[in-house]
Amino acid sequence: MRKQILIVGAGFAGMWAALSAARLADKNQKQPVDITVIAPQPELRVRPRFYESAVPTLVAPLQPLFDATGIRFLRGTVTQILPGSKNVDWTDTSGENHTFSYDRLVLASGSHVNRSLVAGAETHAFDLDQLESATVLENHLHSLATREESEQRNTVVVCGGGFTGIEMALELPMKLREILGENAKTRVVVVERGPQPGSRFSEALSEVIVQASEALGVEWLVNAEVESVEANGVTLKDGRQIASHTVIWTVGVQANALAAQIDAPRDRQGRLHVNSELQVVGHEDIYATGDVAYAATDDKGNHALMTCQHAILLGKFAGNNAAASLLDVAPLPYRQETYVTCLDLGAWGAVYTEGWDQQVKLTRAEAKKLKMSIVSELIYPPKADKAVAFEIADPLAPFV
Ligand SMILES: Cc1cc2nc3c(=O)[nH]c(=O)nc-3n(C[C@H](O)[C@H](O)[C@H](O)COP(=O)(O)OP(=O)(O)OC[C@H]3O[C@@H](n4cnc5c(N)ncnc54)[C@H](O)[C@@H]3O)c2cc1C
User: Fold this and answer.
1) How confident is the model over 269-282, as pLDDT tens digits?
2) Which CATH superfamily does the domain covering 121-249 fall into?
3) Does this chain's domain 3-113+253-336 share its CATH topology with 121-249?
4) 256 lines ligand 1 (CB under 6 A)
5) Ligand 1, residues 131, 258, 291: which to mutate, most atoms within 8 A of Cβ?
6) Which of 108, 230, 233, 333 is the right S-S partner for 243, CB 3.0 to 4.6 Å?
7) DSSP 246-315
């Protein structure tokens, strides 16, 4: 009987899980194993670039790569995971329902920003979390040029000063000038709960963020929390109001809802606790990877973050280990000791740090060059060539 590995999701983790499983199955052909991916589109959506321009183009096709590596792709959405019977229910693009029986399941369904945290955000705020919502935001920014000049039109409020909020906010002065004209009096405000810009990062990184924000004229309202979002701006918890036609929400990223269908411990973001083989605790047939996995990266207490950097390697280990468990091959414990950060700081440049203590190694143009090579090359899918793809899909192949 052919064994079935089902991978849910074709993002960074799902794509690499599929390739890594296919690689191991190709090397060990004593037991036939089929690898299937179910996702809404056979494309990698490059979420880290969604603060840039031309959002709909920030995707990479996956069907040629899957064809070259013998991976079956089913276009659809998983609606239900049934661990007891080892089935998942899914719906195809014509709305027809199906059931898929798996021997091993790899959950790689990603994450989403939660806009329901404050009143009015779902209706009035924008986000750059998914291709569709980031496209709506981009179209809205362009439409500002057709509106009458006003303070609201020229002000953008970014709620949350984490990595996504910072990259978006520091890109905006340049973007707004392109849209509204060089002489428009624009204002970009970041609303941040912490006591200073970037205070959740290392002091050195925070200093660079302050320097870049000042140079670009991006304002930070610190020790500030959003109470509600309205059609014409935001109200803060202390009663202050900022008039704006563009409020961008970046706070509260949550694991995809499928994770909650598995009866297992989860962290505050809804990520499933996994062991070193990336099996979900209490479910040895189910692996969680990427943004749905709460995984230790080392023995020092560090855990994977919801980043591509972690999703790519988590994907490779999860796919490899799911296949290893069917092929009588020893699994590889997930390890990712190296952690780097490369943050785009708009027209000022970028900043690159190394280590969990975020030591600043590069800034400005040098860091920007590195950032561009990461987001436009390193994180893209490999060429649709079996030998090339399998070489990189090895979990032990060099990575950052
Ligand atoms: C604006 C922004 C900027 C970012 N910047 C950075 C950065 O600079 N550096 C960095 O490392 N990371 C960054 N990230 C984070 C990074 O994009 C994520 O950590 C990464 O995408 C996670 O990969 P993943 O494969 O787990 O999930 P995703 O890439 O989200 O992929 C999830 C996949 O699951 C599919 N899926 C979802 N639900 C279902 C379902 N029910 N059935 C079937 N398929 C389903 C989706 O369609 C998709 O194919 C950023 C994210 C955003 C939004």
Assistant:
1) 999 999 999 999 99
2) FAD/NAD(P)-binding domain (3.50.50.60)
3) yes
4) yes
5) 291
6) 233
7) EEEE---EEE-GGGGGS-S-B-TT-PEEB-TT-EETTEEEEEE-GGGEE-B-SSSS-B--SSHHHHHHHH
Evaluate: CB of 343 within 6 angstroms of ligand 1.
Answer: no
Residues 315 and 399 sit within 8 Å (Cβ to Cβ): no
CATH number of 3-113+253-336: 3.50.50.60
Joined together, the tokens standing for residue 277 give 């083989």
302-345 pLDDT, tens per residue? Answer: 999 999 999 999 999 999 999 999 999 999 999 999 999 999 99
Q: Average pLDDT, stretch 187-212?
A: 97
What are 5-55's pLDDT values in tens digits? 999 999 999 999 999 999 999 999 878 999 999 999 999 999 999 999 999
Domain spans of the chain?
3-113+253-336, 121-249
Please work out whether the CB of residue 248 comes within 6 Å of at least one atom of ligand 1: no
Q: Is the CB of 88 under 6 A from ligand 1?
A: no
Distance CA 157, CA 247 (A): 5
d(CA 321, CA 326): 9
Long-range (24+ apart) CB contacts under 8 A made by 90-97 are: 90/38, 93/40
Predicted pLDDT at 57: 98
Average pLDDT, the chain: 97
